[in-house]
Amino acid sequence: MPATAKKGAKRAASPSETDVDVIEILTEDHRRVEDMFDEYESTKDEADDDAKEERVAAICLELTVHATVEEELFYPAAREALEEDDADMIDEAEVEHSTVKDLIAELAEMTPSEDLYDAKVKVLSEYVRHHVQEEEGEIFPALRDTELDLEALGEEVAARKEQLKEEYESEAEQ
């Protein structure tokens, strides 16, 4: 069933269904990555380079998976469900994702011992926190007032996240 199906539409239940809507899934992602940034910040001075690099790689993976599902599934569905006036919020979010991806790419090419490494992690954290505030404060509430089937979209997002994580883990092993 497409994510844009109307609420209340009948669908077959599957044992793997979580009945968690997409906003709850994305909000959980936000809290998880905020906690990861907090942990990095609180331990960066004591951590060795390998530990720092490992933490940043985990943050970047989480952000990459999250951004991918938003761009592939969430933002298109949101854009379709929202009034034309609210579509600007989605445009802004996509531009913010672009900047986040740029910082992730820069960090991937660096080592923790390089100048500006910690500063780039800090800026990434601040940028992500700003993005989260806008999504949770503007986009999510606006979507709650639409006909978008948030649970169906949540199922699609959860499945895609699992697929992406498996793909990235498989790439990392090679």
Describe the structure.
This protein has about 170 residues and is an all-alpha fold. The chain has one domain. The protein contains 5 helices and no strands. The protein has helices spanning about 20-45, 50-80, 85-110, 115-145, 150-174. Helix 1 packs antiparallel against helix 2, helix 1 packs antiparallel against helix 4 and helix 2 packs antiparallel against helix 3 (about 85-110). The longest helix has about 35 residues, at about 50-80. The chain starts with about 20 loop residues before the first helix and ends with a helix.
What is the number of E strands?
A: 0
Order of helices and strands: HHHHH
Kindly state the percentage of residues in helix: over 70%
Instruction: Indicate the low-confidence ranges by residue numbers.
Output: 1-17
Major sheet: none
Task: State the end-to-end distance.
Answer: 35 Å
Proportion of beta-strand residues: under 5%
Rg over C-alpha atoms, rounded to the nearest angstrom: 17 Å
In round numbers, the mean pLDDT is 89
Number of helices: 5
Overall outline: globular
Q: Which class best fits the helix and strand makeup?
A: mainly alpha
Our count of domains comes out at: 1
